[in-house]
Design a protein that fits this description.
Helices cover 17% and strands 37% of the residues. It has eleven helices and 37 strands.
């Protein structure tokens, strides 16, 4: 419990106040701290707490913690004199997906686990409701739920109830249920509707509409009040270059509100929306380069902020006071990316994170009543005196001329010429990388490798057209973009073309597996963690693993491109005869995102074919690591594997 004691003893240790103060005396110069290279033990050490969220009254903080070899939700309670922290009990077979407050005394936690359906493994999610005072826990919603049961569309501000959109079975469309958080009782308030997969509510908790998709078209079901019937709007074609809506938010008691929709430039932007006329109104905010991620409005419906990710997560403040506060934070914490990560309801307490790609960061608590910015905790305290490598944005052209954005990390202290290279594609694949701290990247850089993280076609955030370039690109165009990044760095002289390996997790693990069969001319070795070896089986397991829901819903077609295309043609499991390079395969035994069978079957096939490879299963681990000893062991295995097959 060292980390909890550290939190309690330092939370109120005040740094200089943000407010103006008397000039300080000249500081005495101190000798610079000698930085040393981080080891696998340093970088494999999991953050003891991370991703904190304040309760509405600001009296508590929930965070993801790694305690006694398990991931848990840690709840800290503040008082005027001290801070107490306690881990919430969670079943060992479940993975924690997300958490949020429901009032001040209850916490919602999305949990997932492996289950069986028709003889195959499937990933099942549910919402656990935890009473902080009593520690009583129950699963929200009706007893009969399908695979996905964690779509919470509304949380009562006082924590009295939530609205949950869930399917009765996988053969049904979702309906909306109101769950009383005191009793756990659930009742259906909106029944399922043909082809409607997403429901939305206004700020008062009234379900006002849903978005339907079918046959390449989409439409909206809408009603003005809770007593009115839903009416269907004009049907539109999806993917035809017209406007598509990702989400709506009607203002309480009004037929207008906000919508996140594609602009004429094809980027998701924020608009005013009139539900009566089914029409987009004023363009409120559009970023010139990327999609917006989210937005925030206050109780009166006034826009407070728009969030987006360019090279890293950023915010456009519309609230003058918050804009001024952000500027003051930037000044108080120079040289860092500074984000307000959570606030209480009355905006008197703020959780602030400051860090960067070569700084894993620290969390601070700002109390508006005292005007003090206080250090809260440092998630990776072992790295305070370690030499880390900065990440820089890069761009290069794919073979068909498409511009690919990515990130390059160079090993500290080495001439950036003819370096050994690790290409590290991200997971998803409908996701993206951004500039930030990455323990795997830092470990590779500390060993002398350059690391390239490409946002290949299909990566999200760069507009609808870029995502749609990923249609039918699994194992083909996406892989070409990854390969072209390695070739670009070799041509530019940064990388040695004869010393390139590929490493990734999830879809990145798939890309590494596939490269082992497809591109022995480019890569010397491949490393896969939680990779996908059989694309067809993975689609049957969980289609959401392949989805970019704000862009499209026809997931299988987006993977295959052509309905007649055989997914076996891009599955490493069916290309064993072409695999000749060294490959390291690792997986968690309880992974509910990508089942362990995806790696085990590839291992069995390679073994049967008499092809040497490294293989390790981490018992009890999921889609990442919860035990630091396993995280460290994996990095050390990667280090030994590279020392043997692609020494730096």
């Amino acid at each position: 419990m060292r980390s909890i004691v550290f939190l309690a003893s330092t939370l109120w240790a005040a740094l200089p106040a943000i407010a103006s103060a008397q000039p300080a005396a000249p500081a005495v110069a101190e000798a610079p701290v000698a930085l040393t290279k981080p080891t696998a033990a340093d970088l494999g050490a999991l953050p003891f707490m991370n991703l904190p969220v304040l309760s509405p009254d600001g009296a508590r903080m929930a965070a993801r913690g790694h305690l006694a070899g398990r991931t848990a939700i840690v709840v800290s309670t503040f008082s005027a004199t001290n801070t107490t922290s306690e881990a919430l009990p969670m079943h060992a077979d479940h993975q924690i997906e997300w958490y949020r407050w429901a009032g001040n005394g209850k916490l919602l936690v999305s949990i997932s686990r492996l289950s069986q359906f028709n003889g195959e493994e499937v990933r099942m999610t549910r919402v656990a409701v935890v009473d902080i005072a009593t520690r009583n826990t129950f699963i929200a919603g009706p007893k009969m739920q399908g695979i996905d049961g964690d779509d919470v569309i509304y949380v009562d501000p006082d924590g009295a109830y939530i609205l949950l959109s869930t399917q009765a079975t996988i053969y049904d469309y979702p309906s909306v249920h109101r769950i009383d958080l005191a009793t756990g009782k659930s009742r259906q308030i909106v029944s399922q509707s043909q082809d409607v997969w997403r429901w939305f509510a206004d700020a008062s908790g009234v379900v006002r509409g849903g978005i339907g998709h079918s046959g390449g078209s989409w439409w909206v079901l809408y009603r003005s009040t809770a007593d009115a019937p839903f009416k269907r709007t004009i049907q539109r074609k999806a993917g035809g270059g017209g406007t598509e809506v990702d989400r709506f938010e009607p203002a309480t008691g009004q037929d207008s509100g906000y919508a996140v929709a594609t602009s004429p430039a094809g980027r998701f932007s924020l608009y005013r929306y009139d539900f009566r006329t089914d029409a987009l109104g004023e363009l409120v905010y559009e970023n010139p380069a990327v999609d917006i991620d989210d937005y925030d409005i206050d109780a009166s419906g006034k826009l407070r902020a728009v969030y987006y990710t360019d090279e890293h997560g950023m915010v456009e403040w519309f609230d003058p006071a918050l804009k001024s506060f952000q500027a003051r934070l930037n000044k108080a914490l120079p040289g860092s990316i500074v984000r307000i990560v959570s606030t209480n309801r009355d905006r008197t307490r703020y959780l602030v994170w400051a860090g960067g790609s070569d700084d894993p960061g620290r969390y601070f608590l700002f109390d508006k009543t005292t005007n003090v910015l206080a250090h809260a905790f440092t998630p990776f305290d072992r790295l305070a005196d370690k030499l880390l490598a900065p990440m820089k944005p890069v761009r290069y052209k794919a073979r068909d001329g498409l511009e690919i954005r990515g990130y390059l990390t160079l090993p500290p202290g080495r001439d950036p010429k003819n370096l050994p290279l690790i290409v590290m594609p991200h997971g998803g694949p409908f996701a993206r990388d951004e500039l930030g701290f990455d323990p795997w990247v830092q470990y590779l850089a500390s060993k002398g490798y350059a690391v390239l993280q490409p946002n290949f076609r299909g990566s999200t955030g760069f507009g609808k057209a870029f995502v749609e370039r990923g249609t039918g690109a699994w194992g083909r165009g996406m892989q070409d973009d990854i390969d072209d990044g390695a070739k670009w760095l070799a041509t530019s002289g940064v990388a040695d073309a004869k010393r390139v390996c590929i490493m990734g997790a999830s879809f990145g693990g798939y890309a590494a597996m596939w490269a082992a069969a497809r591109n022995p001319d480019i890569y010397r070795c491949a490393i896969s963690f939680a990779g996908i070896s059989d694309v067809g089986a993975m689609l049957r397991y969980d289609r959401k693993q392949f989805s970019a829901p704000r862009y499209f819903s026809d997931w299988r077609e987006r993977v295959a491109g052509d309905k007649k295309f055989e997914l076996g043609q891009i599955s490493p499991l069916l290309a064993i005869d072409r695999m000749s390079m060294p490959i390291l395969i690792a997986h968690g035994s309880k992974d509910s995102n990508v089942p362990m069978s995806q790696s085990r079957r590839l291992h069995d096939a390679l073994t049967k074919a008499g092809k040497a490879h490294d293989y390790v299963i981490y018992e009890g681990e999921g889609h990442g690591f919860e035990k630091p000893e396993n995280s460290v062991d994996f990095l050390e295995r990667v280090g030994r594997f590279l020392d043997t097959h692609n020494p730096a």
